[in-house]
Specification:
The protein is an alpha+beta fold and 201 residues long.
């Protein structure tokens, strides 16, 4: 009986592992990222190399459907409005598989961007090739990268209130970008991203 239970347990673990996608690696603080080119909601391809005057990027993995992402949309818009002109534009990327989550399809991304008035790129990680390189696991999940060396300077959450903007007492991304613009060391380079898991087929 014990052997049968052990066999059943091992079988269950094996099946679970087969259908569970794990990010085992990804960019760490100080790592140099690879450039990428992804399709934007205006049907053009966007590459980081397109931004000739940028000092860096606020790369945010987000989506239409996650309640945490929706709760942070206005904050993402505000980040882009504040920092784009200072050289750190927002680059939003939807990492979810649209077959697994139909409301995260490219067509629905266009609708959501129009509804919210996004002024930043909203890219589809078609084939889910980019987010595993970053090691992103949540939506939203933020990576701040400096352009001159393409190195990761910050990884984590936008701030310390994942859902309610009124409860924010520490603005992680703003503090990090402000430090970079001032030529100072970022005090908090990593925080825990809180959100929905990235969906795969």
């Amino acid at each position: 009986m014990k052997i049968l239970k052990l066999v059943l347990l091992l079988t269950f673990v094996g099946v679970l592992s087969a259908f569970t996608f794990k990010i085992t690696d990804g960019y760490k603080i100080g790592d140099k990222i690879e450039n990428f080119s992804l399709k934007n909601i205006d049907d053009t391809s966007v590459s980081l190399l397109d931004y000739k005057e940028a000092k860096g990027f606020i790369i945010i993995f987000t989506c239409n459907t996650c309640p945490y992402s929706v709760a942070n949309e206005d904050r993402i818009i505000a980040l882009d409005k504040k920092y784009k002109t200072l050289g750190f534009p927002v680059i939003a990327i939807n990492p979810n598989d649209p077959i697994a989550v139909p409301d995260d399809s490219f067509a629905k991304m266009k609708v959501r961007a129009q509804e919210k008035g996004f002024k930043f790129p909203y890219l589809l990680d078609d084939g889910q090739k980019v987010y595993p390189k970053f090691g992103a696991t949540k939506t939203p999940h933020v990576y701040i990268v400096t352009k001159k060396d393409m190195k990761v300077q910050y990884i984590g959450a936008i701030d310390n209130s994942s859902r309610d903007a009124d409860n924010v007492t520490e603005k992680y991304v703003e503090n990090a970008v402000d430090a970079l613009l001032a030529g100072k060391e970022i005090e908090k380079k990593e925080t825990r991203a809180i959100g929905c898991s990235i969906k795969v087929q």
